[in-house]
Structures are given as C-alpha cells and as structure tokens.
Amino acid sequence: MVRLHTNDLSIGYGERLIVKNLSVNIPDKKITTIIGSNGCGKSTLLKAITRIISHQSGAVLLDGKNISKENTKTLAKKMAILPQTPEGASGLTVGELVSYGRFPYQTGFGRLSKRDYEVIDWALEVTGTIDFKFRPVDALSGGQRQRVWIAMALAQETEIIFLDEPTTYLDMAHQLEVLELLQKLNQEQERTIIMVLHDLNQAARFADYIVALKNGEIVKAGACEEVMVPEVLKEVFQIDAVIGKDPRTNKPMCITYNLLKGENHNEKVNHPVYAHASSHY
C-alpha cells in the first residue's frame, strides 16, 4: 500500500535544480532509507516532501491530496520531521521540548490539555527518556538528546516520521540504539519511517525499502537486495563493492570496497590494484 508519493518532482535553489522530475512511491508502514553521495539531493528531497521548502514543479501527494494545498496544522498531524541538526532547545527541559510536538492539536491560548500531557509522557516512556523529563536538554548526551527529539516527533502522533541523518555525530552504540528504537516504532506501532542514512550497512539492515539517488535522480529504488548490489553502488558512489550477507540479519552488507577514480571509472575495474583485490573473492 502507498499513501505517500511524488510525481515528477523538481526542486532547486534559484535556477539550479537539485532534484529533477523525481517520482517515487513510499511504502506504507515500512522503513525507507534514502542513500546517495553528499550533495545528491537527499536532504532537499526530505524538506520538499515535508513542505519545509517549496518545489519548482511536480507534486507530493498524501492520501491522494496535494500537500501544498493542505492546512499546516492538518499536515502536521499526518507527518513529522526530525531535521539533520535540530536547533532551538537551549534553555528548555526535556518535557518542555517534547511538548512542542503537541502544537498541531492546540487551540485558543495554546494551553496543554490532560490529553496532551498523557501523550507527552507516553512519548517519553516509549523513547526511554521519561527519567530526563525535568532535566535541561543541554545537559544530555548526544544519544539521549536524539531520543528526546524523536520523542517530540512521536508526540505529534503522526503515522509518518521523517528523519534526516538521525545517527550523525553519535558513536556506534548510540547509533544502534536510535535505529533500533525506530525499528521498534515501525514494528510495534506501524509507523512509516523515512530516513536519510550515510552508512550503507545500517541502511540495509534496518530498511525494508531503499531509494538510491545520484545528482537528484533515482538510480534504483526497491528492496535492500535489489539496491545493495555492486552495479548500483558503482553508479551511485563510484565504488567497486563486494557484497555479502549479514550473518545475524541475513540482509545484504558491504564487506569491502575500492574507490573508482577518474571520469572513466568503468575502465578502472581492470586496473591491477582492483583486479588483485577482486581475486580474493
């Protein structure tokens, strides 16, 4: 089932197009990861789909409706986004920050209702941050802060959550902690998760569906096994990758790779260095 999709979406800054005529279907109640090299349009695409920035042409459709025509509060009840570097939490306690997720539901003077407080506590419980409720956000570790931001997104009670590089600046343990939390939200609450990730093996391990971008266009979109193949990674990242299987998850994983240099990188595969590396497999 697909509730969210784009039709011939083009996004740019001034006269420079970053994303070009992109059409993609986002599987409902699944985890989708978007991969690609720096500057390929991953974050730009997320911002346009969530209406943070406008698009030049095409459309983003949610439940058959063009989001550009949706009321802001109505849209905020359907989708939440956690940007790459969340800001604006300085001086706030954890509980106060998470309460911002209730904005779409507030009326009148914006006072929190009993229902709002119940949802805030639920979001803190689910993310394992309830013990930090009265602590300043500034006093938390990077991993703790990221879970608090996810709690704020959960407090919006949306069925769709976007995250732009949610593991950035986190160590390996905290990266895994955040990704396992998102997987749990997807599996237990059927939240649709769309996120940008740089780590290919994390993308393959946690995603049901992967979208690989290059220069603002889709090279390949599909199941992990369809996207995590040498040919696609060669086109997207200019690498000669060796793909195996994760012994714990049975998902595809990049075991090793060589960098293909120069404009004619297709010819570089036969270079003695690459030929020697490939002979081991």
TrEMBL record:
Q: Which domain of life is it from?
A: Bacteria
- Primary subcellular site in the record, as a coarse category: membrane
Q: Note the coiled coil stretches, chain numbering.
A: none
Q: Name one GO cellular component term.
A: plasma membrane
GO molecular function annotations of the record: ATP binding; ATP hydrolysis activity
Q: Where in the cell is it found?
A: Cell membrane
Which InterPro entries does the annotation name?
A: AAA+_ATPase (IPR003593), ABC_transporter-like_ATP-bd (IPR003439), ABC_transporter-like_CS (IPR017871), P-loop_NTPase (IPR027417), Siderophore_ABC-ATPase (IPR051535)
* Keywords tagged on the record: ATP-binding, Cell membrane, Ion transport, Iron, Iron transport, Membrane, Nucleotide-binding, Transport
- In this protein, which residues make up the domain named ABC transporter? 4-240
GO biological process annotations for this chain's record?
iron ion transport
Mode of membrane association: Peripheral membrane protein
Pfam families attached to this UniProt entry: ABC_tran
Query: Which PROSITE patterns did the record assign?
Result: ABC_TRANSPORTER_1 (PS00211), ABC_TRANSPORTER_2 (PS50893)
> SMART domains this protein is in?
AAA (SM00382)
User: Which PANTHER family does the record cross-reference, listed alphabetically?
Assistant: IRON(3+)-HYDROXAMATE IMPORT ATP-BINDING PROTEIN FHUC
Q: What is this protein called?
A: ABC transporter ATP-binding protein
State the organism of origin: Niallia endozanthoxylica
Its ancestry begins with:
Bacteria, Bacillati, Bacillota, Bacilli, Bacillales
